[in-house]
Amino acid sequence: MTASTLKPGQKHPTPTRGFGDRVFYETLLRQKPDSQMAQEWCVAHGVLPHEEAQKLYKAILKRKGKVLSTASSKSNAGDSKKSASSKKVKREKKVVKEEAVDVGMNVGGDEGIGGMTL
Question: What's the alpha-carbon Rg for the chain, to the nearest Å?
Fold first, then answer.
């Protein structure tokens, strides 16, 4: 599968028409076009026509608060790394004291499976 054969937002190979998941999500999308779960699955697996996939992919990105263009996301990625590293917070380590517990399931020498002879 090459980048030229992928549809907008497609991350996985397109399953066959009889594949159970595909039937479920296509039916769900037909019955409830506003289903976010169905929209994301159908776009990620490339089962929609190119135009519809493009429209839904833009809606998914908008819903998730992501930007479609790659040029602006690359420049913002470096800025976010700088701000994340400057905001390191030290956390206290909590020590949990473990206690030994006897649940009373000891088996003696003459007890157990197959201990009885005829």
Answer: 28
Question: What is the pLDDT, as a whole number, of residue 75?
Answer: 46
Note if the pTM is more than 0.85: no
> What is the rounded average pLDDT of the residues 89-99?
75
Q: What pLDDT, in 10s, does the model give residues 22-51?
A: 999 999 999 999 999 999 999 999 999 999
40 contact partners, CB below 8 Å, separation of at least 6 = 60
| Helices 36-45 and 20-31, packing angle to 10 deg | 130
- Distance, in Å, from the CA atom of 35 to the CA atom of 43, rounded to the nearest integer, reads 12
Number of H-type helices and E-type strands within the chain: 4, 0
* Closest to 28 (Cα-Cα) out of 43, 44, 39: 39
Q: In this structure, are residues 51 and 38 in contact, taking their beta carbons and an 8 Å threshold?
A: no
C-alpha 39: how far from chain center: 15
Measured distance CA(35)–CA(29) in Å, rounded: 6
